[in-house]
Amino acid sequence: MGMPHKFGMFVHWGIYSLTGYHEQARWRFFTPRAEYRKLMNEFNPVKFDPDEWVRLAKDAGMEYICFTTKHHDGFCMFDTKYTDFNIMNTPYHRDVLKELSEACARGGLALSLYYSNPDWDYKYGFNSHSSHQMPEKGDVEDIEKLKEFQKNQIRELLTNYGKIYTFFWDIPMNIYDPSMNEFIRSLQPGILIDDRGWGDKGDFSTPERCVPDGHKFERLTEACQSVGEQSWGYCADEDYFTNRYLTASIDRIRAMDGSYLLNVGPMPDGRIPERSAEIVRRVGKWYNSVKEAFDTEPYLLENRSLVCTKRGSTLYVHIPDGLNSRGLTLKPIDVLPKSVTLLNDGRKLKYAITTRPEDKGWSAPDNILRRQTLHIFDMPADEFADETMVLRIKLDEGKIEV
Questions:
Q1: What is the rounded distance in angstroms from the CA atom of residue 186 to the CA atom of residue 231?
Q2: Residues 203 and 193: beta-carbon distance below 8 Å
Q3: What is the DSSP secondary structure assignment for residue 92, as one 8-state letter?
Q4: Pairing state of beta strands 347-348 and 64-70?
Q5: Alpha-carbon gap, residue 113 to 191, rounded angstroms
Q6: pLDDT tens for each residue of 159-210
Q7: How remote is the C-alpha of 48 from its chain's centroid?
């Protein structure tokens, strides 16, 4: 039922954090390779504390961390023998991926690895079939050499850092070669692989910065979104998303039985920006309160602006778009529930069955709908205007039919 782990922290971190701008800063600034490489000499994240990252993630209800081992710029955040453009040749001179993997093991979190197909530093990294390419004079398109280079680094990643939960290729190659995913599985049987690799659809889909239409995913899905609108890496002047926006996005994806990766971009010194951390804490507080409403079955009400899930005779009503008033009418529920609870803070809500005209002895035209309907009223809509409200409605057995 869905991905094994449901909520995780995405971490985009590399020497691009020194620009305070974007993980694709080299692309956006048209920086020559030799000039960009100089950032390696400045990278010294002396305040990196992987245990603090793990604590932040766990407190938010997250079950795993997905880490960018190499982004498009080609800089490797792990100890690799196949390029000198890596963390071991910085003033820091420590394998941050190794330290993160050990912290995840101590904290009981799974570890996933992100790996970029484009490589702006590797001489043979150009791929004319794909996007996000940045070749320089003297570079040669040689897919076989690129494949060999990737396999060598993947072997390092999947043999030196313990059990890996998922492998997240980025930017499809648009070249079909299923042997690449087969190679990954030969090193880590049971690993899950995304759909952005060498033409192979992999094990799961990866909608990015969006919520797909529908009410249930047809295959394993892991959606990803960042805490900010501008960048995945550290951005000094980030436009952070509102709590309302993020909780609505997470709620819809999880209600569709998808998993969710929420990204942060650590600063050059290794700390997660406090504003980003506060967003994770705030979203996590909400998620921990309402997560029983997920890993359920979809349930469609006539009011399609609501998201509904069910487990047995318990119905969960999600309100990602917020309320315009303090009341909510739920068609076609026409029986009194045992209880209605706001999961966000556990309070009991008032409810009643609407009165039909004939119940009052009044007459009404035959074309007027006379069905009883459950009505919930005096809801604390203003108190929770900045997050998605989720209601738990307990009914008698057999009172919900899909």
A1: 34
A2: yes
A3: S
A4: unpaired
A5: 11
A6: 999 999 999 999 999 999 999 999 999 999 999 999 999 999 999 999 999 9
A7: 22
What sign results for the dihedral spanned by CA atoms 19, 65, 93, 149?
Answer: negative
35 alpha-carbon distance from chain centroid: 33
H helix and E strand count, the chain: 8, 16
Within 8 A by CB and 6+ apart from 60, the residues are 7, 9, 280, 281, 283, 284, 285, 287, 288
Q: Are strands 259-264 and 222-226 parallel, antiparallel or unpaired?
A: parallel
Q: Give the residue carrying structure tokens 């409810």.
A: 351
Instruction: Kindly report the pTM of this predicted structure.
Output: 0.95
Closest by CA position to 121, among listed 172, 68, 154, 76: 76
- At 375 the three-state DSSP class reads strand
- What the block records as the tokens of 201 is 């659809």
The amino acid present at 152, given as its one-letter code, is: N
Answer for the pair 330, 317: CB distance below 8 angstroms, yes or no: yes
**CA pair distance 392, 176, nearest whole angstrom:** 46
**Each residue's pLDDT tens digit, 311-362:** 999 999 999 999 999 999 998 788 899 999 999 999 999 999 986 555 555 5
CA 46, CA 48: separation in Å to the nearest integer? 6
CA atoms of 237 and 21, how far apart (whole Å): 8
Closest C-alpha among 234, 251, 334 to residue 23: 234
Tokens found for residue 348: 């009991």
Distances (CA, A) of 134 to 23, 27, 33, 119, 165: 14, 7, 9, 8, 30
Kindly report whether the peptide bond that precedes residue 268 is cis, defined as omega within 30 degrees of 0.
Answer: no
- For residue 33, give the amino acid letter: R
Q: Is 192 in a helix, a strand, or coil?
A: strand
317: which 2 tokens? 């009503």
Q: Convert 179-197 to b/e letters by CB count within 10 Å (16 or more is b).
A: ebbebbeeebeebbbbbbb
DSSP string, 114-173: EEES--SS-TT---TTSSS----TT----HHHHHHHHHHHHHHHHHSS---SEEEEES--
